[in-house]
Design goal:
InterPro entries: Fibrinogen-like_C, Fibrinogen_a/b/g_C_1, Fibrinogen_a/b/g_C_dom, Fibrinogen_C-term_domain, Fibrinogen_CS. The protein has helices at residues 2-62, 110-115, 128-137, 205-209, 262-268, and strands spanning 64-65, 74-79, 83-88, 94-99, 117-118, 124-125, 140-147, 153-163, 172-175, 178-180, 221-222, 240-241, 253-260. With 269 residues, the protein is an alpha+beta fold.
C-alpha cells in the first residue's frame, strides 16, 4: 500500500514536471515568435527608411534647376553652376532682395553683399556674385515691387538687367527699357559700380547712406537703406525711390526679382 502511494506520488510529480516542461516550451516558442516578429518588423522599418531616403534624394534633386520654374513656389536649388537656394514666386521670377520689417541690417560689408545675407523667407539680399553669374549666363529682366506704410504700391520693370563681375566692382552694366507706375529711379545709376561703407567706389555715398547700392552723386534710389518702421525718411538714410513718393517717405516694402527673358526661355524649352 505504501509502495502504491509512492508510485502515485511519483506519477503526479512526473505529470507536474511534464506540464511545466510544456508550459516552458510554449513560452520559449512564444518568445521565439516575438523575436521573429521583431526581426521582421526591423527589416520592414529598414526598407521603409531606405525608401524614404531614396524619395528624399529624388525630391531634393527634382527642385534643382537653372532658373525658377513657372509652376510651384517656394525655395529651389539654383545651379549656376554652383548650387544655391533662392525663393521663387511660381511665375518664373526669382526673388533677389526683400525688405519688409527691418529684421535684417542692410548696412553690410562688401564681402557680405558679395555672398548674400539674411533670411530667404524674410528680409535678405541674394548676393552680387550670384547676380553676376545669373545675368551673364542668359539675359534677364528685372521687376521691383514697392509699398509704403499707407498701403500704396508701385512697380518698376526693366526688360534687361546685367551685373558685372567683381573685377568690374559688380557694376550695373545693362539696364533695359523701363515700364511701370513707379517712375524710373534706376537709370541714373546705370554703369555705376556697387559701393558699401567699407568699399566705397563713389565718394563716401555708401557710408553716408548706410547701404550697399550703385551710387552716383549719390542717389535717386536706395533700396538697401535703413528700414524706418514709421515710414518717414529722415535725412538720406532710408529706403527710397525718388520718382515715387518723393517727399519724406521711406518705403516699408520692397521686393526685387529677376527672370530669364521670355525669348530665351522659349529657346531653352
Amino acid at each position: 500500500m505504501e509502495i502504491l502511494e509512492i508510485k502515485n506520488d511519483i506519477k503526479k510529480k512526473d505529470e507536474l514536471l511534464n506540464a511545466k516542461y510544456i508550459e516552458i516550451q510554449e513560452k520559449n516558442d512564444q518568445a521565439k515568435s516575438k523575436d521573429d516578429q521583431n526581426r521582421e518588423l526591423t527589416n520592414r522599418l529598414k526598407i521603409i527608411s531606405q525608401n524614404l531616403s531614396n524619395a528624399n534624394e529624388k525630391l531634393s534633386k527634382s527642385d534643382e534647376t537653372n532658373f525658377c520654374p513657372y509652376t510651384g513656389s517656394g525655395t529651389f536649388h539654383i545651379q549656376i553652376p554652383k548650387s544655391f537656394e533662392a525663393p521663387c514666386n511660381g511665375s518664373g521670377w526669382m526673388v533677389i532682395q526683400r525688405r519688409m520689417d527691418g529684421s535684417v541690417d542692410f548696412d553690410r560689408t562688401w564681402n557680405e553683399y558679395k555672398e548674400g545675407f539674411g533670411n530667404l523667407t524674410g528680409e535678405f539680399f541674394i548676393g552680387l556674385e550670384k547676380l553676376h553669374l545669373l545675368t551673364h549666363a542668359r539675359p534677364h529682366e528685372l521687376k521691383i515691387l514697392m509699398g509704403d506704410i499707407h498701403g500704396d504700391t508701385a512697380v518698376a520693370h526693366y526688360d534687361d538687367f546685367k551685373i558685372g563681375n567683381e573685377e568690374k566692382l559688380y557694376a550695373l552694366e545693362v539696364l533695359g527699357k523701363f515700364s511701370g507706375d513707379a517712375g524710373d529711379s534706376l537709370k541714373y545709376h546705370k554703369n555705376m559700380k556697387f559701393s558699401t561703407f567699407d568699399k566705397d567706389n563713389y565718394g563716401k555715398c555708401g557710408r553716408y547712406y548706410a547701404a550697399g547700392w550703385w551710387f552716383n552723386h549719390c542717389s535717386e534710389s536706395s533700396l538697401n537703406g535703413n528700414f524706418k518702421r514709421n515710414g518717414q525718411l529722415m535725412g538720406i538714410r532710408g529706403i527710397f525711390w525718388s520718382s515715387w513718393k518723393k517727399s519724406k517717405v521711406s518705403l516699408t516694402f520692397v521686393q526685387m526679382m529677376i527672370k530669364p527673358k521670355d525669348n530665351v526661355m522659349k529657346k531653352s524649352v
